[in-house]
Amino acid sequence: MNNRNQSPWSWIPTLYFAEGFPYVLIVTVSVIMFKKLGISNSDVTLYTGWLYLPWVIKPLWSPFVDLIKTKRWWVTTTQIILGAGLAGIAFSIPTSNFLQWTLAIFWILAFSSATHDIAADGLYMLGLSEGDQSLFVGIRNTFYRIASIAGQGGLLIVAGLLEKSTGTVRTAWSLTFLIAAIIMILLAIFHIKVLPKPNNDTQSATSAKQLAIGFIQTFKTYFCKPGIVTAVLFILLYRFPEAQLTKICPLFLIDPLENGGLGLSTEQVGFVQGTLGVIGLLLGGILGGTAISWKGLKKCLWPMVIAISLPDLVYVYLSYFPTDNMFTIGSCIFVEQLGYGFGYTAYTLFLIYFARGEQQTSHYAISTGIMALGMMLPGMISGKLQEIMGYKMFFIWIIACCSITFIVSALIKFEPDFGKKKTEK
Predict the structure, then answer these.
(1) Where are the alpha helices (DSSP H) in 195-296?
(2) Which of 149, 211, 220, 377 has the highest local Cβ count within 10 Å?
């Protein structure tokens, strides 16, 4: 590397903060913003559901990140675009046709964020030795989660406080996204200075024709894998209940009591879901990883299936027995997210298991695209279902959908000791 003596600590934490920060704004914070700006639940989930699409089709253009420019160039360029786009959201909110403008800009942000993910992961592998890659995988995941807390926790609290101080929802959210834009631009400036310049971070020497042939071959080998049908069903449907909950939960927390919600303020949502919830998610993931390394995926699968499903009952409880007690609400969301984080570990380990082989990286990217599709489609229709059913029946519907998680989990096959840490003899 040109800056060979540079410590990974100088750029890994901020790089993965910059990866997680725009994602949570696009996928989660946008839902709350549109709700606060008066958009109906069905329209909010439909419009924001489409924002998953770039992550669904990300494998289709990921080879071009190799073919054109360097990973470092892609990282810094997309961060500048993300900062400019967030500023564009801020200036569009006060306009009369804000919905069309903000959605258009969110689309640009979503494609930029997905491209940034590709380049950042590529730079991570090129900029670190194999030993450092293993060492820093926990660090990168931690700072990605910190970005989630900053976005759907910290920024939401700021938005809520600004709503009260300015007295205008649009002004508050415009200022909130301006703050987000400044953070993103500062990260881009910092990374222009500190990101490593690995000697092997060069444009691919492969021609476009060779790339296209290899691209087709990658998809062909993926969809010819043994057990592909059950694997795709598992990847699509394991999180079917959660894909709907993710969109509806913040709307449920915000909606007033007369509409069946809990009537929380924006900053209260930022605290209970964006802070307590994300901490629960992070702890659940740590516990899940520890459990699998100890017992293996096979022995942990069913406890994890139960953990990702059973805690959804907290929303049934909250819808039938609404309360303004923040301890009760926070505890319910923490428990649900703790279970989700624990149960999600089995899902991510299966993606790694199924991607094994000569084209592991490419096959894993295809699986993550299918995973995003599994979040996108149920999320898009969830708002309409909620409006038809009401919150009480919708959450009972979610519990019924958990049966799908159990069915697809029963179908998959894998080696008994996969994921279990090997003991040295």
Answers:
(1) 208-223, 228-237, 240-254, 266-271, 278-295
(2) 149
User: Half-sphere exposure of residue 274, counting CA atoms within 13 Å on the CB side?
Assistant: 31
Which of 211, 321, 208 is CA-nearest to residue 262?
321
Which percentage of the chain shows pLDDT scores above 90?
Answer: 64
CA 345 to chain centroid: 14
Nearest to 281 by CA among 323, 229, 335: 335
Tell which residue, 33, 14, 142, has the closest CA to residue 79: 14
Max Cα separation, the chain? 69
- Residue 334 near residue 276, CB atoms below 8 Å: yes
Based on C-alpha coordinates, what's the Rg of the chain?
21
* Residue whose pair of structure tokens reads 């909010």 in the numeric block: 44
What are residue 196's phi and psi, to 5 degrees?
Answer: -70, 160
Task: Confirm if 351 and 374 have CB atoms less than 8 A apart.
Answer: no
Encoded amino acid at 8, one letter: P
Tens of pLDDT, residue by residue over 123-167, are: 887 887 766 765 676 678 788 889 988 999 999 999 999 999 999
Give the whole-angstrom CA distance, residue 240 versus residue 234. 10
Whether the Cβ atoms of residue 288 and residue 304 lie closer than 8 Å to each other: yes
Compute how many other C-beta atoms are within 10 angstroms of the C-beta atom of residue 425.
3
Does residue 362 register a pLDDT over 90? no
Using pLDDT thresholds of 50, 70 and 90, give the confidence band for residue 424.
Answer: very low
The predicted structure's pLDDT at residue 425: 44
The answer to whether residues 328 and 21 touch, using CB atoms and an 8 Å cutoff, is no
